[in-house]
Specification:
The protein is built from 8 helices and no strands. With 202 residues, it is an all-alpha fold. The chain has one domain. It is elongated, with a radius of gyration of 19 Å.
Length: 202
């Protein structure tokens, strides 16, 4: 076993990196909310108007934060069952984190240009890829027996079903983006709730 240690990486170190990336990404989301120059005199009605004008940015900020929180919780479920982490798992996780780190940019783009199809499609593509890599991650853990438990076939199907929720939601969101771009992120209001429900069935 000692001679094979180079093939495995401490799960704690990976978990620390995951937590750090999520903390940064979730913090950067708030930067999508921009305020105008505060020089000059402002009346109550003007400030109320500014706040109302930020409604879209506030919504997409809260939604993206909600999505990232759900993804973080879901990924920690993987780590709770992980006994070893090989290089394959490490690189899949790094790819996944690359996409997670892109979420603040996707959120800014959606907040500022959410009425356009390209911005909505970029946001949805980001979420789709996150979902696909999450599914790949779970598949890799199960197929390579990196978890500390043996999964029953029906449990494996349930796990894959859970990890299909986000990419399927993204595909639905992409379809909506061609019809009404600002409404395309609405699908994610329900996706985390579906995931939580399915997880309770395991």
């Amino acid at each position: 076993m000692d001679g094979q240690n180079q093939y495995f990486i401490s799960t704690k170190r990976i978990e620390t990196l995951v937590d750090g990336i999520f903390a940064i990404a979730m913090t950067l989301l708030v930067l999508s909310i921009k305020l105008p120059d505060n020089s000059g005199l402002w009346t109550d009605s003007m400030v109320w108007g500014i706040l109302w004008g930020q409604a879209t940015n506030l919504f997409i900020y809260a939604l993206s934060f909600y999505i990232l929180a759900t993804l973080w919780i879901n990924h920690h479920r993987v780590f709770d069952q992980l006994k070893i982490a090989d290089h394959g798992f490490w690189w899949i996780t790094v790819l996944w984190l690359l996409l997670i780190a892109l979420v603040p940019f996707s959120t800014y783009l959606m907040g500022d240009f959410g009425n356009t199809t390209p911005a909505a499609l970029f946001f949805q593509a980001n979420m789709f890829l996150i979902g696909i890599v999450s599914l790949l991650n779970r598949w890799y853990v199960i197929e390579n027996k990196l978890a500390d438990k043996i999964y029953k076939p029906e449990t494996v199907k349930q796990i894959y079903l859970i990890n299909l929720v986000f990419p399927v939601s993204a595909l639905i969101g992409m379809s909506i983006a061609f019809i009404s771009p600002p409404w395309s992120p609405i699908v994610y209001l329900f996706s985390p709730l579906i995931i939580i429900y399915l997880q309770r069935q395991l």
